[in-house]
Design brief:
296 residues, seven-stranded mixed β-sheet, 16 strands
Amino acid sequence: MRAAVVKTFGGPEAVEVVETEVPEPGARQVRIKVAAATLNPVDAGVRGGFFGGAGKQIGFGWDVAGTVDATGVATAWSVGEEVVALDPGMVRPLGTHAEYVVVDTDAVAKAPATVDAVHAATLPLNALTAEQALELLELEAGQTLLVTGAAGAVGGFAIQLAAHRGLTVTALAREGDEELLRSLGAAHFVSGTAEAGAYDGVLDAAVLGGTALEWVRDGGAYVGVRPGGHPEPVRGVRSTAVAVTADGARLAKLAALVDEGVLTLRVAETYPLEEAAKAHARLDQGGVRGRLVLVP
């Protein structure tokens, strides 16, 4: 099968598409024939060596949408089922940017029925990150939340999920994104900066760190999206960061929210797997609204 990998760290030109063996599922695993897989900023970090692994072949991709192709023992999934899954990992020989991928059965959920595989592939990593970050914030209906980097994939899901929970959401992004973010459920919009101490919680998808912490009220909560990179707590503010984990049961609930119209899936562009390097180059240019998706 074909898979996108990096063997020598660098820019988009370092991305290679190689031929490799089709992986076999073990106990409590399934093999998915990949229909679509999303390119995320974490993949650029892998390509640049941010997570280590020098001298190894490292595969790209955490998100996948496709069809169950084979199963190991002790799994409830059947061949032919259309699914989505999160397959996290910084340094491993293969990821989801391939024709086939093996994942743990507990990481898998039925794909949303109302969207195609390209759109479904944008759900797992970013929606699970937003959902797990909101859980860490521990805010209740009626409280206020500021989402930085609100026009990005995590930020967009965070707005929709928070509004669905009954939170009053303020979106922080570029001025040109206001209409989009209000359509996703943001009650308020700010650009550039926000008011100090004005919010019960901040979900810092833009990784602003200490600057964003200052926008939290005394005793409030801050959650970042870079594990270990959150600022030190001050003024009684809880400060932590989400480290996303695979969770098929939670992913199934998010897929159901897609079918209910609560969550909008945004695709910016699609690329064939052979053009993975072009997709990386587009990601590096920035300004993408929605996700870039690879199609084997």
